[in-house]
């Protein structure tokens, strides 16, 4: 590893001069050149104090709009429409020029390494553009790139698990959490959330296929700890716990998520309620079997019909619907969990 000492070397450096975190707390970091007397060592980044950019709303909005734009570029007209939709044309153009100047001179300024906000002109339109990952590293883009590498690795017959783990380690926290309802951020947010779920469920499937149910459980719990209302992750975890005989724990998780959703005046989705209903039925059948065993085989008359215990009949029919039951200790993947397709609405 080479330590960077001057502006020319920054351009060739392995480490980008500016790093931005958009997942979770928004942060800006700048690379600090190492003094020549320190010799070789790891690069050092220093976080930019929020006081330096927290009160520069228009410039930060411009930065974030560009981060959400394809190839980090956008025409002036589209930026104005996103940030100042109600401004008169002249006032909006002046506001954009002022925001661009602040972004260049104060927020993305880093020595003399060239422009970090690039102006492009052509076809009668002026565009603003941010540098690529080599100069302006963004965690969301790093996550998407790593997740894509994992999928390609699997397609090529290589083990994607390390790449998926690295990708998901980056994807902690909500994208641009200070701008949850900004219309210009929604497209990028949906892309990131979709990729995060694909990577998570692919990793869970691979863990289960390899007999590593505890690792799958660990990742699902981590996701729910971050977002307890993630019903897709909840259903996958409930199914996994139920298959291990931990039905009460699964139902407790469901109740916790249900309570949180009801606080927001939202009910759990039909497929989530259906999963919970099936687990409740399985728990009731198990308790009936336990009572039957504890009573020395004396079955209450209320549970007997046509000479056969009701729990045994219901259990047999439920297994017929699902297929053969897994052997003791075996964890099987249920395709319908984590997907809204193929699930009948439950009560």
Automatic annotation (TrEMBL):
Renumbered to this chain, region (Disordered) spans 312-347
Q: Which Pfam families match?
A: BTAD
Residues annotated as domain Bacterial transcriptional activator: 138-280
Report the InterPro entries cross-referenced here. Answer: AfsR-DnrI-RedD_regulator, BTAD, Sig_transdc_resp-reg_C-effctor, TPR-like_helical_dom_sf, WH-like_DNA-bd_sf
Superkingdom per UniProt = Bacteria
* Family matches, as Gene3D superfamilies: Tetratricopeptide repeat domain (1.25.40.10), Winged helix-like DNA-binding domain superfamily/Winged helix DNA-binding domain (1.10.10.10)
Task: From the Swiss-Prot or TrEMBL record, give the protein name.
Answer: Bacterial transcriptional activator domain-containing protein
This protein's species is Dictyobacter halimunensis
């Amino acid at each position: 590893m080479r330590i960077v000492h001057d502006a020319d070397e920054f351009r060739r450096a392995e480490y980008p001069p500016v790093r931005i975190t958009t997942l979770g707390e928004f942060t800006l970091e700048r690379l600090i050149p190492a003094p020549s007397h320190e010799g070789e060592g790891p690069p050092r980044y220093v976080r930019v104090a929020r006081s330096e950019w927290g009160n520069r709303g228009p410039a930060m909005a411009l930065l974030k709009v560009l981060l959400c734009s394809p190839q980090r570029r956008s025409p002036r007209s589209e930026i104005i429409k996103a940030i100042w939709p109600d401004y008169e044309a002249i006032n909006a153009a002046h506001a954009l020029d002022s925001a661009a100047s602040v972004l260049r001179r104060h927020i993305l300024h880093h020595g003399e390494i060239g422009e970090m906000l690039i102006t492009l002109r052509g076809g009668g339109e002026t565009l603003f553009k941010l540098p690529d990952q080599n100069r302006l590293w963004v965690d969301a883009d790093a996550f998407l790139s790593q997740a894509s590498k994992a999928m390609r690795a699997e397609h090529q017959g290589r083990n994607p698990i390390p790449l998926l783990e690295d990708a998901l380690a980056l994807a902690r926290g909500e994208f641009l959490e200070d701008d949850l309802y900004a219309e210009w951020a929604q497209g990028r947010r949906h892309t990131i959330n979709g990729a995060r779920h694909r990577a998570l469920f692919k990793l869970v499937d691979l863990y289960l296929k390899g007999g590593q149910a505890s690792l799958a459980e660990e990742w699902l719990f981590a996701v729910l700890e971050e977002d307890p209302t993630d019903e897709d992750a909840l259903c996958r975890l409930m199914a996994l716990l139920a298959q291990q005989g931990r039905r009460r724990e699964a139902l407790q998780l469901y109740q916790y998520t249900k309570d949180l959703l009801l606080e927001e005046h939202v009910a759990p989705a039909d497929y989530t309620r259906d999963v919970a209903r099936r687990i409740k039925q399985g728990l009731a059948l198990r308790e009936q079997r336990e009572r039957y065993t504890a009573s020395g085989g004396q079955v209450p008359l209320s549970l007997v019909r046509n000479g056969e215990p009701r729990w045994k009949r219901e259990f047999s029919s439920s297994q017929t619907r699902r297929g053969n039951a897994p052997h003791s200790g075996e964890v099987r993947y249920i395709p319908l969990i984590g997907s809204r397709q193929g699930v009948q609405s439950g009560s």
